């Protein structure tokens, strides 16, 4: 029997309730899961997600972007330092509501993923459920993708689909998609943390 590979030390960046972070922390409790949620950082103080991380015994930090006078890179350098001190190898964005500069994205390229609540490349940016309803699509969903400098444009690792049902409003659709996000994101993190999916030459390569 071969020895288990060391688990990747993952830092999760959040800005709010952190339900995706919780689904990752739960998944990471399974024996054999290839990642450990070692740190949760929020850019907003006192959000619910920080409490939920502490409930799992996960180390937490707050790096308040407002302390950096709109200097995005200074904010990111402060976050990067916290990640370094905690020996983080991989970043998962989970409801993190700051746009990252090319400096930070390039530094973590191939080692940072995001979940976006739409079937990319459809409906980038915010209010994705509203965008889907306005477009009249019959199918919607979520995408886990590598982060590249262009917003919501990174190569997709996994997607999950849900139907858009007659009478759906934004809230109903968001709820249906979120159920899928909570399954998709742990699966996507397992793919990349185990090395089964990699970012190479701007595309996802599986091996
Ligand atoms: C999720 O819908 C995620 O797709 C989007 O922001 C939301 C975060 O929710 N990027 P939570 O904080 O994980 O509960």
Question: What's the helix and strand layout?
Answer:
Layout: E1 8-14, H1 19-27, E2 35-42, H2 48-55, E3 59-62, H3 72-85, E4 90-93, H4 102-107, E5 112-116, H5 128-135, E6 139-146, E7 156-163, H6 170-193, E8 197-200, E9 203-206
Parallel strand pairs: 1-2, 1-4, 2-3, 4-5
Antiparallel strand pairs: 5-6, 6-7, 8-9
Helix pairs in contact: 1-6
This protein binds 5-O-phosphono-beta-D-ribofuranosylamine.
5-O-phosphono-beta-D-ribofuranosylamine binds at residues 14, 16-20, 49, 94-95, 115-117, 178, 181.
Summarize the structure.
The protein is of the alpha/beta class. It is built from six helices and nine strands.
Explain what this protein looks like in three dimensions.
The chain is an alpha/beta fold. The protein contains six helices and nine strands, in the order E-H-E-H-E-H-E-H-E-H-E-E-H-E-E. The strands form two sheets. Strands 3-2-1-4-5-6-7 form a seven-stranded mixed sheet, with helices on both faces. Strands 8-9 form a two-stranded antiparallel sheet. Helix 2 links the parallel strand 2 and strand 3. Helix 1 runs parallel beside helix 6. The longest helix has 24 residues. It starts with 7 loop residues before the first strand and ends with a strand. The model has no long low-confidence stretch (mean pLDDT 97). The structure holds 5-O-phosphono-beta-D-ribofuranosylamine. The site of 5-O-phosphono-beta-D-ribofuranosylamine has 14 residues, from helix 1, strand 5 and helix 6.
